[in-house]
Amino acid sequence: MRLIIEARMEDDQTSSTVTETTIVAVMERQERSIADLGLTLAEGRALLAKVQSVLVSRQTADWVAGQQACCRCGSMPAHKDSRSIVMRTVFGKVEVPSPRLWTCRCGAKNGEPRRSVSPLSKAVPQRVTPWQN
Question: Which of 30, 53, 67, 94 could form an SS bridge with 119, CB 3.0 to 4.6 Å?
């Protein structure tokens, strides 16, 4: 017997639903073996860690995509580079891309120096997800 667990992400913002499917785990069990009932603790932890990784990666990617435009003029700032940051979650560490952007040119008109910013690093400075409700 083979158990395949998938995570399906659906975009609820559009009328035509975009679905992204990721295989989270594949578990093999012997036919008619009572010794392999259910999940082991290690399998359960690994499954939750993978689900957390898929969810955090998608959430941060969606959030970063919504933060790209300048809040003053609405233009798209230039992309400087991209680095990864590690988010610590209750189910393990998740590495997510964190783009660095140049500040908008409209700020230079107000006397502000042009520098790079990382919206994700700024929004989650401690890089820890909530652990309680």
Answer: 67
